[in-house]
Amino acid sequence: MSRKNRNALADRVVRAAEATLTAQGYVSPTDTLVRIGWLDVGAVERWRRGQIDCLERAMQTNPPRILEALKLFQSWGAGKGLSASLTDYLARTPERQALRFSRGGDPAVEVLWRTHWVSQELSEKKRQRLAEKASRAPDLVVIQPLNSEWTCHRCGGTGDLLLMENCGPACLRCVGLDDLEFLPAGNALLSRRVKAKSTRWAVVVRFSRSRRRYERQGLLVEPLALADVKSDLDAPRGG
């Protein structure tokens, strides 16, 4: 890369990183590359769902240029005196497998991708909360399809709910979620407590044609957790 092109890229990376840092107090490589236009938010979401094997494959930019941007981002964060936070990225799938960023899977490159930079102006407690939130496995999302005529790519069956995989929609039995019970949205206290008590759960969404977005319909939770929480809430309180 020529000196002129490198300087131009450095300027783009720094401006994008600074803007994101100002807005949220921390910044990641994915935040920065989305802001400079190399990454599409939809592609990042598909990658988080395990539908893309590595994030670089969703980018039109060649790997050497991507690596240069990552190194510039790293240099900016260190030079600014920010706190480096190594973040785990887990797929939004029942297996919760670790996600891969680079085509080659080089550990050193993966570390560059996983390094977030956090403002020193934030309190230690808030920095810790941000690190925990960033490393937390994303919500598992199950879809309530508008069209009932769909086929599971694994077994050829169908159902009221599906999970999208790389090869297409999968039924809950094939992904090991058919033992969970649907808890409709509407009771925030019940949903919050059951979600906390259930070791396995998923968010159920349905696409709204009028609003052109997926909207939450409720949760899939463990039946025993739901029964326990309902029993606790229904139990009479002592005076």
From TrEMBL:
Superkingdom per UniProt: Bacteria
Protein name per UniProt: DUF2293 domain-containing protein
